[in-house]
Amino acid sequence: MRTGVCVRRRHRNPLLRRSDIVETWTALVVAVLLVVGAPLLGTVAAVRSDGHARAVAAEQRAERHRVGALVTGRASEAPASSEDGGRQSFRATVRWTARDGTTRDATARVPADTRAGDTVGIWVDSRDRRVPPPAGDTEILEHTVTVGAFTTLGTALVVVAGHRAVRGAAMRRRLAEWDRAWARTEPRWTHRRT
What we know:
With 194 residues, the protein is α+β, with helices and mostly antiparallel strands. The chain has helices at residues 2-11, 18-63, 137-190; strands at 65-74, 80-81, 88-97, 103-111, 119-124, 130-131.
């Protein structure tokens, strides 16, 4: 009951303008959107992204397979981090036999201790072209978290930008109202004619 009295008294305040009420309600809506809306939207985007990424990974696993390839030589001497856990690897030329019996050559990352003549596993598609391995659970999780986090952050930025725009408009309106009120009041205080 007391809260209702405070609200009614506040609305009867002669200094309270419509722009003040709009700004107060906008701040409340912004707080709800930042606390509930942005994380909820980020979660929904992450769940949808996870489902899509898992479907793509399943499709990749269905159309790609691993074959043994013979390392014929190193394509580069500079070590580079590999896709598999950050271990050191090199680019090397590899050769494998396709399903139709022809031999294929390509460049692939091989572990740092691999020598010419060693056999390594590579991934190929249905046309026997070398392709990256299908996405694993770690890549799917990273993708899902990234999409969720950036969706939440983007939503929060849009909400804050909208709030700033509404506050700017409310401030301009408030200043215009004060100018009009002063234009009516100032002649009475200064005894000047307009």
